[in-house]
Batch of 2 targets.
Target 1
Amino acid sequence: MTTTVSAKRLSTRYLSAERVAEIVRRKGIGNCIAGVASYIHHDFLRWHDFEKCARVAHHSDVGVIELMPVSDARSYAFKYVNGHPSNHRFNLPTVMAFGVLADVETGTPDLVSELTLTTAIRTAAMSAVAARALARDNVRSMALIGNGAQSEFQALAFHHLLGVQRFHLFDLDAAATRKLAANLTRMALDFACFDSVRDAVRGCDIVTTVTAAKTKAAVLTADMIEPGMHINAVGGDCPGKTELHADVLRLGPVFCEFEPQSRIEGDMQQMPADFPVTELWQVLAGRALGRTAADQVTIFDSVGFALEDYSALRYMRDLAQELGMGEELSLIPALEDPKNLFGYIPAEAPAAKAARKAPAEVI
Ligand code: NAD
């Protein structure tokens, strides 16, 4: 009897930061955000296919380093990501990341990719997927509170996927707002700069908070929120790190990505354990209600979930294949006999052999 074993190739594709930037340039940033949003939507509808867990976080006084794993029957993904709000002191970004997509059948790492740029794209895509399900119709304006690395991506996602036409900008750091203003000008997007959060959010359909500070901040207070607003809270994503005053969370239904993780890390960490919250996938799948009235306030308490990175890695892998981009990485030894790992080490050169007089000392 013969057994047929399907052929598996040992090959790991590597996408550097430069390569991903080039892929995004060639495809167009709006198309990439839309593409990742559609992969996220698709994967959220397959919610029960995935083995999920809250991310594993290692905290220090100044930041956090996290591992974010998730898998289905076909692929396993993880992301390494940090959050260090004071990193600008060293001229480094607050958030830096890379990740892996692996074949579940063999454990072969199929893709190793940068995820700093990709995280900004996937976070913006996730925000837009949530807002499409939760915000009222015909949104036109969005306040962007926090004008750092993520902010342009948020603006583009809401412009391309929801039709937002005008952005109200505020950051404690005026230089960050100038940077965002310059980039929005380059993209021909309409905006205005404000001197306070209160002034920036007034009259907006959507309020996105994407600030970074390792503290229990209350960037938004309940008296700033108007009927019908959708709040996209992105920056409160760690124990002891919030953006919304607790009263904001009482203004309307709260939605999250993966409840066990969000209760620890989201703005809802301030609320009691039985505080009602709905996982977004349920709304996308038509199993739970989203917004029920145009004047209702809706809140997406985003923290970033491993499944979004799984979707983004899949998207980048597919795009890299389509565009023929990325390098082959020699990450795992290619063995003629998989049991002869030792044989992979080149034979010692005769000179080195002769020079070796005595066995190595064991200390
Ligand atoms: P960044 O450091 O580049 O920018 C953050 C900006 O927030 C800075 O310009 C800072 O001056 C400003 N800021 C801080 N406190 C403020 C306040 N009270 N009011 C107004 N502005 C304030 O960081 P980034 O890469 O843009 O990330 C922003 C936040 O988003 C971080 O907290 C990060 O952890 C979080 N994040 C969340 C997700 C997610 O999936 N939910 C993904 C990526 C990043």
Target 2
Amino acid sequence: MADDVCSLAELTRGAVSAAMRAALPAELAEADPLIRRSEHADYQANAAMSLAKKAGRKPRDLADAIAGALREDPAAGLAVEVSGPGFLNLSVTDRAVWRQVAARLADDRLGVGTPQLGRRTVVEYSSPNIAKEMHVGHLRTTIIGDALARLLEYLGAEVLRQNHLGDWGTQFGMLIQFIDEHPDAKWRAQDLAEGDAGTVSALDGLYRQARAKFDADPEFADRARRRVVTLQSGDEATLAVWRELVRESEKAFQVIYDYLGVSLNAQHSAGESTYNRYLDEVAAEVEASGVGQISDGALCVFFDGVTGADGNPVPLIVRKSDGGYGYATTDLAAIRYRIRDLKMNRLIYVVGAPQALHFRMVFDTARRLGWLTDDVEAVHIAFGNVLGPDGKPFKTRAGGTVRLVELLDEAVARARAEIETKPHTLEPQELDVVARQAGIGAVKYADLATSRTKDYSFDPDRMVSFNGNTGVYLQYAHTRIRSILRKLPEDARTELDVDAPLHPAERGLILLNDQFAGTLTEVADTLEPHRLCGYLFSLAKAFTEFYEACPVLTAETEQLRANRVELCRLTGATLAEGLRLLGIETPDRM
Ligand code: ARG
């Protein structure tokens, strides 16, 4: 990055700080100037109000003193007014505002720094279960996790994406036994005819058949249970089938990730089985440390205030009474591995809200064991449910779980229909691509724009609308900017003139562009992507206001046109970059 591009808010803070040092006694001069956005000017500084008591002076006196110093500093670039009991209203000069457009455009990161440098961050997300199809329940973790990973990485964090696949457990005994007893069962990709619904659907079918047999036939259930033991003891023939199940499933997940444009691949797979080799050691440590206790033959960790409906304590079970390990032990091994071996200092688990208690117990146990220290942050990023279009829990008509691929297909089809209602010049092949970008973008945006903890309805008609707070609206705003820039004559003047007059709509748009880096920092700190969505929506609306008030290609003078073109360029770049960080593509035309 070139020189750091400070935002106008930062420049304003700097100027007011300098004025405070020039005008106030030493004990007040270093205080925070308290810069906020203002309704009456660009910013206001509230420092005089907060310092008055300590100084034993009227806030108005202090404000006058700071204002005086600001007026004497030509480099401040601020018009200043004292208002009310002692607020400083600050307006950035037109020059400084225009200069900001040039400064951001000159930086290929648009003034975004790397505040996450030094953070070694695990983002664990998606984590579907092997031999089952991805369903609506995996949508949010996959979308939110991917957006967070992209954004943190861009801000300088070293990000390790982890897909904690459910690839171990008693169900594999059942599946492998069933496959053995039904050699004709069709579940491998090579068994499927072209156009078949895909391996994971086939695997899903296998799962259902095996389950039905398990429930109906006690002798099969016994054989399946023995097969689990064979698998766990490392029997090579059994492991070979297990590996094939995992591989076939992963292939099918990858198809969905590619369709979704999610940056997960095989390199990020670290399924539950990855941690098998550590489970004995982890349990031994839990027991020896005294953090765990034997209760009814099982090794358990208990927590203050964690009780079930019957009032009895709910433990984290580290080793079952039969000596077996489960989901919780795996998570303990995983957190230890991530901290101790991978040396990560921020652990982000993007997993549905129902697992909140599980993660509380895992994190608390890891803390008591001394693995999780104050230098490491572990957070469960929970999220609300995806509801059906009627606002009720999302089920198929038959009451089953909704397949993810069907939802995506539906959104893409609706996006295509929506695009086709408008006059467009897309070639058929381009239309295919743009419909996918719009449909997938719409799904992602609808998910990310809802504050994480809330539920939302999966309503494709609303999602793909060109109006309102939708992904398609933002993509469309971006294409409008691209189209303006395409129409610019090649020999047009492009240097921005900082002495050009500045329209209020231009000022509004530039000030919003200026908040981009700050918004990203906020999302990285709060892990709330909806803030970026809200920001981009405001930016697109401000662009519309600007475009209505300020003709670009037909501006009154060549100089004004050049300035406005640069402002279009900046806004287009900010929109595209913001959407890219959310995992949303930006077609050039739609
Ligand atoms: N496979 C689990 C599921 O589908 C999610 C795994 C969550 N991650 C974890 N570390 N426990 O519910």
